[in-house]
Amino acid sequence: MISVIFDLDGTLVDSEPNYYESGRLTLERHGVPDFTWEQHARFIGIGTLETLELLKEHYGLRPPVEQLLAEQNAAYLELARTRTEAFPEMRALVERLHARGVPMAVASGSSREAIDAVLEGTGLAALLRTVVSAEEVERGKPAPDVFLEAARRLGAAPASCVVVEDAAPGALAARAAGMACLAVPYVTDGAADPAFAGVGLLFPGGQAEFSAAAAEEWLGSLGAGWAGGA
Prior knowledge:
This is HAD family phosphatase. Pfam families: Hydrolase. By secondary structure, this protein is an alpha/beta fold. It is 46% helix and 10% strand. The chain has nine helices and six strands; from the N terminus they run βαααααβαβαβαββα. A six-stranded parallel β-sheet has the order 3-2-1-4-5-6, sandwiched between helices. The two termini are 15 Å apart.
């Protein structure tokens, strides 16, 4: 049987507005008052730590990156617990796969505390019990570490895993891990990114186009033995 590994932010849940706001507040606190959504969008799919390392260098911020990370995580957690929504069709896919007994995990660039807050707040925690944060591995996406660790915890061979992702770094990480990928770009203008060229199933219109039924049928076609019905 296949195992399915979900990215969290922008894939399962629409948390990017919370990440933008928490990042904007953190930068504003340190003298950068005009950080825009367009600037934030360049970092979608990259872990918070890696993003802050790049922003620290770009803006010449003086505090250590560990302090910036703690500040942004604190701001994000306040938002995450109450303002995060799961994408309806993604929730439906998780529920369908759970009903079939498909092994599932979450592998995210977020902190473990942030992941847990979002899963609890959206009610997905009961369905997705295997969780890997980029904090727990050596390298974040586009390196394959989080996906390989998720497979290890599921007891699954990488070749039997399918990654569900929204961003180019995640698609590259899935490829590097030797896993198939189902891609639902959060930023639909990026659907033509070469990183998505080799994915198994692409919904170029993003969440507006994504269908749990279509995704389930495709997953079944990979040899799971349950395409077309429960």
